[in-house]
Each structure stands twice: as structure tokens, then as C-alpha cells.
Design goal:
By secondary structure, the protein is mainly alpha-helical. It folds into 4 domains: 5-73 and 203-248, HUPs (Rossmann fold, 3-Layer(aba) Sandwich), CATH 3.40.50.620; 90-201, Glutamyl-tRNA Synthetase, Domain 3 (Glutamyl-tRNA Synthetase, domain 3, Alpha-Beta Complex), CATH 3.90.800; 268-387, Orthogonal Bundle (Glutamyl-tRNA Synthetase, domain 2), CATH 1.10.1160; 390-475, Arc Repressor Mutant, subunit A. The protein contains 19 helices and 10 strands. The chain has helices at residues 19-34, 55-66, 89-101, 112-124, 147-154, 202-212, 228-238, 268-273, 278-286, 305-311, 326-339, 342-352, 360-370, 380-388, 402-413, 420-434, 438-450, 458-465, 467-475, and strands spanning 5-8, 38-43, 83-84, 105-108, 160-163, 170-175, 179-184, 192-194, 217-221, 244-248. The longest helix is centred in the N-terminal third of the chain and has 16 residues, at 19-34. The radius of gyration is 31 Å and the shape is elongated. It binds glutamic acid.
Length: 479
């Protein structure tokens, strides 16, 4: 059987890995691993005008964070580096020239001004923007080239190489997820393959690389469907076997619009900085186009990567995914936090707040108090800040309560064994003895200790803070 090789091919043209690319990476990774195949990362950095500095490093860092590690590197030994298209320029040029030689591609000397003018005219006539084929005559199969254009060539004017798309017939393929897809050739543009700067376009580079890297399954988002017939023509012209194509759903907002950086948090680093756990994000993304089968699973929406690997079938992905709902992701992240054992959660919290250097001893003690209440790691500190610092402000003015707080400080002073139980008992006795209104009294204590009306359980919090600190906080309201 042919070995399974999949890839993701992110372009370093954004801040980081797009969450949609994380989804694509996930299904490529799972599919490769399920079939004992290889998962490859290729950086598509041929659009030099859109490169963003540091983007490649951030993409690789995010993949590592998700645990979606590539299986192959162009260099053996040394630190990992991905395939990079900018390091493979000679290859693309070679195949572009090969296509020209066979008459399947041609030189085009049209100036940007002419192309712009052409586009405008097409637009005004309501036609789709397409190259009008003026330079097609230079193709070796069409030696009758207009003299003027032939002259441009001999003068070595700037040129691009374009795909010579036949204007009859259809180009079709069978997509694992979507079935048969067919395009009329006359509607396919004579795509630029090699730009005047010598760099290939995406269309040429993707085909050359997928072929040379022996990619068996091209699994990517639906936005690339309309590019696929161009790719297929290149494969056919070069006499190469086609890979299997699968176009998954793109992520959409609840209003069905495309997830875009103008409206949504789309970069993986945003999710990391918000304290989402990578396992929870992958679990949530898995559900974007697929759900675990009823048989052989408990039908739960929460599953590990290993479980997904057992049950996932590429052909079961639905072509249109449900909406990407941040609220649901938050809920799921909370579920993952609750499933995490306390020592691991402590390590995650310490790491998340590493700049703050939180004392491990306190973090460890607070975890049982907050584990049920947080959805993201970033929810931790707003809930527990008062353990590390005295409240800087209080949500309620406590001056009318200072006599009660003064009584409480005296009463708590007598607690010998400072445990949550004993603290609770002591406070209840005081309330009963003095006839305080219980809810008012406890609200005042909560505010005095934590600064807030809502906090983790009070007795336990007081135990962790220690007797001296609790009494000091109470005293600040009457001394
Ligand atoms: N460079 C393309 C991207 O940024 C890759 C598309 C493909 O997978 O063919 O997503």
C-alpha cells in the first residue's frame, strides 16, 4: 500500500498560526498517524510582499504547543527546521520551463497597467476577471506570435510564466469529503506560475512540492477548492499522479460569516494568552466537522486525541462545519481544567503566570477552591488575587460594619487551631451571641478579606491566608 503522507502549508503572512490552520493541521496529523504515515510542515513563503517578520517562528511554536509535531525535516540532525519554499526556487523554475517547453505554459509580458485596464473593462461588463490571452501566441505550440510581443521577449523585458489552460473541456476530481467536483476549463484563468521576481506563485509551488514530497492526501480548507483544477492541470501536464484531495469546512462565526482577523481572535497565540489548554482547543476543533460515531464511543463531546485517532474517518467530515463558538470552547476548556489533576493544574497556572512568580505554596492550596470555578487559566488570578496581595479596593464601603469586624478580630484571636472548620464555628458563635444578621455579617467579612462580593469559599480562604493576616485585614477597618 502507498504510504500516507500529509502536510500543512502555512504562509508566514500573519501574526501566527491561524486557528483555521490549527484545524487543518489537526485533521492532517490525525489522518497521518492513524495510517502510520507522516505529517509534514512546509512553510509557503513565496509571496515576498506579504511576509511578516517572526511569523514562521510563531507558527512553529504554536504547532509545538498543540503537540502537532512534524515528522520530517529537510535537514537530518540539528534542530528542527521545516521545508521552506524560498529555499527551493530552482525546482519551481525548472518545472515552469518544462511546462513552457511542452506548450503548457507561456511567457507573458503584459504590464501591470495593461492588466489593470483589462480588469476594469471586464468589471464594467460584468465579466469574471481573467487574463485575455494576448501573450498566449508566444507559446511554442503557437509560434505565430504577434511581432510586437516577440520583440519584448528578445529585449528581455520583464515577464511572468502563465499556465496555458485549454479553453475546452472540463477538469474534475473526486474530493473525499465533497464527492465529484467539476470545472469548465474555459472559466479557469491562465494562472501566473512564475512571477517576474523569479518566485513561483502558490499554484506552481504547491503542486511541485506536493509531488516531490510524495504527499498522498492533500487535506486543506474549502477556500482552496477553486484552485484545485489549476493544480490538477499542472499535475496532468507534467505527467504526475494526482494526490487524493479532501477540502474540509472553514471555520465560521455563529452568523455564518467567515472567521476573520478583523472580527475575531484568530491567532493561536491569543488562545494561549487567554489560558486555553491546547488539548481543549484540539478537542473543540475536532467537533467542527466531525462527531464521534454512536457505536464504539460513549458519544461524549469530550475525547482525547488518542480516542479521536481510533474513531476518526476523513470521509465522515461534513463539508459545512458548525459555527465556531467561543463560549462553547470556554465551557469545554473548563471541563478540561476540572479533569486535570491538581499538581498538573498547579504547574500550568505557575507557568501561565510565570512573570508574576506566584508562590507555589499558595497556588497549591488555592487550587481545590477555584478548580470548579475557572474556565481558563486567566480566570485564576482575578479570583485569587487577594491571596497574594491585600485588596487595593473594596466593592462595598465597610465603615458601618467596623464594630462587627472589631468583634470578629477579637473573637478569632482565640482560635487555637486555625482550620476552616474552627474559623467557621467561631464566626457562627459570634453571630448567634451578638444577634447579627448572618447574611450581612458574612458579606462584610468577605469584603474585608477579599475585597469582593463574590469569592472562593470564605472559611477555607481565611485558613490559607493565616490567622495573623486575617486579623490584620479586619483591623484595617477600625484602627
Ligand atoms: N499556503 C496555503 C495556506 O496558507 C496552503 C494551502 C494548501 O494547503 O494548499 O493555507
Amino acid at each position: 500500500m502507498k504510504s500516507i503522507r500529509t502536510r500543512i502549508a502555512p504562509s508566514p503572512t500573519g501574526d501566527d498560526l491561524h486557528i483555521g490552520n490549527v484545524y487543518t493541521a489537526l485533521i492532517n496529523y490525525i489522518f497521518a498517524k492513524q495510517n502510520k504515515g507522516k505529517f509534514i510542515v512546509r512553510i509557503e513563503d513565496t509571496d515576498r510582499t506579504r511576509l511578516v517578520k517572526g511569523s514562521e517562528e510563531r507558527i512553529l511554536k504554536s504547532l509545538r504547543w498543540f503537540g502537532l509535531d512534524p515528522d520530517e525535516s529537510p535537514e537530518v540532525g540539528g534542530p528542527y527546521s521545516p521545508y521552506r519554499q524560498s529555499e527551493r526556487l530552482e525546482l519551481y523554475k525548472k518545472y515552469a520551463l518544462e511546462l513552457v517547453k511542452q506548450g503548457h505554459a507561456y511567457y507573458c509580458f503584459c504590464t501591470p497597467q495593461r492588466l489593470e485596464q483589462m480588469r476594469k473593462e471586464q468589471q464594467s461588463k460584468g465579466l469574471p476577471p481573467m487574463y485575455d490571452g494576448l501573450c498566449k501566441q508566444l507559446s511554442t505550440k503557437n509560434p505565430a506570435s504577434p511581432a510586437g510581443r516577440q520583440e519584448l521577449r528578445t529585449k528581455n523585458e520583464k515577464y511572468v510564466i502563465r499556465l496555458n489552460v485549454p479553453n475546452v473541456g472540463t477538469t474534475q476530481f473526486t474530493d473525499i469529503i465533497r464527492g465529484k467536483i467539476s470545472f469548465e476549463n474555459k472559466l479557469i484563468d491562465d494562472q501566473v506560475l512564475l512571477k517576474s521576481d523569479g518566485f513561483p506563485t502558490y499554484h506552481l509551488a504547491v503542486v511541485v512540492d506536493d509531488y516531490l514530497m510524495k504527499i498522498s492526501h492533500v487535506i486543506r480548507a474549502e477556500e482552496w477548492i477553486s484552485s484545485t483544477p489549476k493544480h490538477i492541470l499542472i499535475y496532468q501536464f507534467l505527467g504526475w499522479p494526482l494526490p487524493i484531495f479532501a477540502h474540509g469546512p472553514i471555520l465560521r462565526n455563529p452568523d455564518r460569516s467567515k472567521l476573520s482577523k478583523r472580527k475575531n481572535p484568530v491567532w493561536a497565540s491569543w488562545y494561549r494568552e487567554q489560558g486555553f489548554l491546547p488539548e481543549a482547543i484540539l478537542n473543540y476543533l475536532a467537533l467542527m466537522g466531525w462527531s464521534p460515531p454512536a457505536s464504539g464511543t460513549d458519544g461524549s463531546e469530550i475525547f482525547t486525541l488518542d480516542e479521536m485517532m481510533k474513531h476518526f474517518k476523513l470521509e465522515d467530515i461534513k463539508p459545512v462545519g458548525p459555527a465556531f463558538d467561543l463560549k462553547k470552547l470556554e465551557w469545554m476548556n473548563g471541563e478540561y481544567i476540572r479533569k486535570t489533576d491538581n499538581p498538573k493544574l498547579m504547574a500550568q497556572i505557575l507557568d501561565f503566570y510565570k512573570e508574576k512568580k506566584l508562590p507555589e505554596r499558595i497556588v497549591q492550596k488555592t487550587i481545590p477552591l477555584i478548580k470548579e470555578r475557572i474556565k481558563k487559566l486567566s480566570d485564576y488570578l482575578p479570583l485569587t488575587e487577594f491571596f497574594f496581595n491585600r485588596p487595593a479596593k473594596y466593592e462595598v464601603d465597610l465603615s458601618p460594619k467596623s464594630p462587627q469586624l472589631s468583634q470578629l478580630a477579637q473573637s478569632l484571636n482565640s482560635v487555637e487551631n486555625w482550620t476552616a472548620d474552627n474559623i467557621g464555628k467561631n464566626m457562627q458563635e459570634l453571630v448567634a451571641k451578638k444577634g447579627y444578621k448572618s447574611s450581612d455579617f458574612f458579606m462584610a467579612v468577605r469584603i474585608a478579606i477579599t475585597g469582593k462580593k463574590i469569592s472562593p469559599p470564605l472559611n477555607e480562604s481565611m485558613e490559607i491566608l493565616g490567622k495573623e493576616e486575617v486579623i490584620t485585614r479586619l483591623k484595617s477597618f477600625f484602627i
